[in-house]
Structure to design on (255 residues):
């Protein structure tokens, strides 16, 4: 959730505290609620096991699904809660673990259970590199519906994470953390992101950025979102752009 308040991730307690101080709100419950809304009546055919409170219980109660609480989260929740929940559910023999989060959450689950149980991520990060996420909560719901109908394959996909210390130093570095099994149907999963750019692609980004800067008008606010192409715009403007956050510029300066 740090990217939405100008931070490059929230790995570590200090970064998390700073994100909360800046007014960041947990994004996972919002995305999970959207996922459940699109899942609708189809989700009632599944047996839901969940962790307590904000780790699933509250939202499942909100949509009226039948569920069983099989463990209890700490307050505030931590990565250890995620790992304990994943281990417990794998031990209970669930057929699929559905979670809301980003690459860090996916890595926590893989660390806890390896490839013992298939997983499916509801995307709730600013950018994600792991190939266990559909592009949107709606796509995640569509994929789960196909899974429940027996219309998917189980495949092995890469789980990756970004070195957030490198992010804060202005370097984009994603590393392979492991592999996970996940349901697959055409056009419903991200393919994983490459971090190495070809020379001609780099030149193309510079050309696009130069055109954008050329078209900027005096006195107008411009919102710069996440991404390396937008970062090139900031570079040409001479401003210090956060790689994954949202920035606003006017007259060539951050505001």
């Amino acid at each position: 959730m740090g990217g939405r308040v100008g931070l490059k991730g929230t790995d570590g307690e200090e970064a998390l505290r700073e994100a909360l101080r800046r007014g960041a709100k947990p994004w996972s419950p919002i995305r999970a609620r959207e996922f459940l809304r699109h899942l609708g009546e189809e989700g009632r055919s599944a047996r839901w096991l969940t962790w307590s409170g904000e780790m699933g219980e509250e939202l499942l109660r909100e949509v009226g699904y039948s569920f069983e609480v099989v463990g209890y989260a700490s307050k505030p929740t931590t990565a250890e809660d995620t790992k304990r929940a994943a281990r417990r559910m794998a031990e209970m023999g669930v057929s699929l673990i559905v979670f809301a989060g980003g690459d860090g959450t996916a890595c926590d689950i893989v660390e806890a259970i390896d490839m013992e149980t298939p997983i499916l991520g509801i995307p709730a990060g600013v950018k994600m590199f792991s190939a266990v996420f559909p592009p949107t909560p709606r796509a995640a719901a569509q994929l789960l519906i196909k899974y429940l109908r027996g219309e998917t394959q189980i495949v092995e996909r890469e789980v990756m994470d970004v070195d957030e210390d490198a992010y804060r130093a202005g370097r984009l570095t994603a590393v392979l953390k492991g592999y996970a099994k996940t349901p697959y149907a055409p056009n419903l999963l991200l393919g994983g992101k490459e971090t190495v750019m070809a020379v001609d692609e780099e030149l193309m980004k510079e050309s696009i950025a130069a055109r954008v800067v050329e078209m900027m008008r005096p006195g107008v606010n411009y919102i710069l979102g996440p991404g390396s192409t937008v970062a090139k715009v900031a570079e040409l403007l001479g401003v210090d752009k956060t790689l994954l956050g949202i920035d606003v510029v006017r007259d060539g300066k951050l505001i």
Notes: The longest strand covers residues 174-184.
